[in-house]
């Protein structure tokens, strides 16, 4: 694994195939976090040139979170504790008990970056990593062909 820069961030992120830089786009403030806040550590805006498959693990107790803004470019794999470490997701943010797969349609804006560190309420600290996240600013307009979802892991 590559070493972190002086700011603790890894990067640049390995960009999934089918994206082109969107230099005219603004990166939403909610996409990037400071150390300990989770989110992205470093980020770049892209537009999809082709359909891009993405997956998300979410909390069944909050059905509105099924098609949220945070996605991964690869199939979600368990166990839950490992997934939390990989993507720096605190237990208070999500139970991570369901998964869904969708496609980001061509022309959609996505923000790609590496994972920021997260400090959780229970004292758990997940370090920043080179793991790639995709932040989809407008999931309702950008995601198509979503699976009904299934239990995770």
What does it look like?
The protein is mainly beta and about 150 residues long. It has one domain. Helix content is about 10%, strand content about 35%. It has two helices and eleven strands. The chain has helices at about 80-85, 140, and strands at about 20, 40-50, 50-60, 70, 100-105, 110-115, 120, 125, 130-135, 145, 150. The protein has a five-stranded antiparallel β-sheet with strand order 1-2-6-9-4, with no helix packed on it. Strands 3, 5, 10 and 11 form a four-stranded antiparallel β-sheet that branches. A hairpin with a 5-residue loop joins strand 7 (about 120) and strand 8. The radius of gyration is 15 Å and the shape is globular. The model has no long low-confidence stretch (mean pLDDT about 90).
Quick structural overview:
The protein has 153 residues and is mostly beta strands. It has helices at residues 80-87, 139-142, and strands at residues 19-21, 40-48, 52-58, 70-71, 98-104, 109-115, 118-119, 125-126, 129-135, 143-144, 150-151.
Secondary structure layout plus pairing:
Blueprint: E1 19-21, E2 40-48, E3 52-58, E4 70-71, H1 80-87, E5 98-104, E6 109-115, E7 118-119, E8 125-126, E9 129-135, H2 139-142, E10 143-144, E11 150-151
Antiparallel strand pairs: 1-2, 2-6, 3-5, 4-9, 5-10, 5-11, 6-9, 7-8
Question: What structural keywords apply?
Answer:
mainly beta; 153 residues; five-stranded antiparallel sheet; 2 helices; single chain
Overall outline:
globular
- Domain count: the total is 1
Biggest sheet architecture: 5 strands, antiparallel
Category from helices, strands and their pairing: mainly beta
Enumerate the spans where pLDDT stays under 50 for 5 or more consecutive residues: none
Query: Helix coverage percent of residues?
Result: under 10%
Count all strands and give the number: 11
Distance between the termini: 25 Å
| Number of helical regions | 2
Q: Which band does the percent of strand residues land in?
A: 25-35%
What is the topology, as strand order, of the major beta sheet?
Answer: 1-2-6-9-4
Mean pLDDT: 92
- Using the CA coordinates, give the radius of gyration: 15 Å
Tell me the quaternary state: single chain
| Strand and helix order | EEEEHEEEEEHEE
């Amino acid at each position: 694994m590559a070493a972190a820069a002086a700011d603790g961030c890894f990067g640049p992120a390995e960009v999934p195939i089918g994206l082109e830089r969107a230099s005219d786009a603004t990166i939403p403030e909610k996409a990037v976090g400071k150390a300990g806040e989770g989110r992205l550590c470093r980020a770049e805006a892209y537009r999809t040139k082709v359909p891009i498959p993405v997956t998300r693990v979410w909390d069944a107790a909050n059905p509105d979170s099924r098609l949220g803004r945070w996605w991964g470019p690869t199939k979600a794999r368990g166990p839950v504790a490992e997934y939390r470490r990989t993507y720096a997701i605190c237990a208070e943010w999500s139970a991570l008990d369901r998964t869904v797969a969708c496609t980001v349609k061509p022309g959609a804006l996505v923000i790609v970056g590496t994972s920021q560190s997260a400090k959780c309420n229970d004292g758990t600290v997940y370090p920043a990593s080179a793991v790639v996240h995709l932040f989809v600013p407008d999931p309702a307009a950008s995601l198509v062909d979503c699976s009904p979802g299934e239990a995770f892991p």
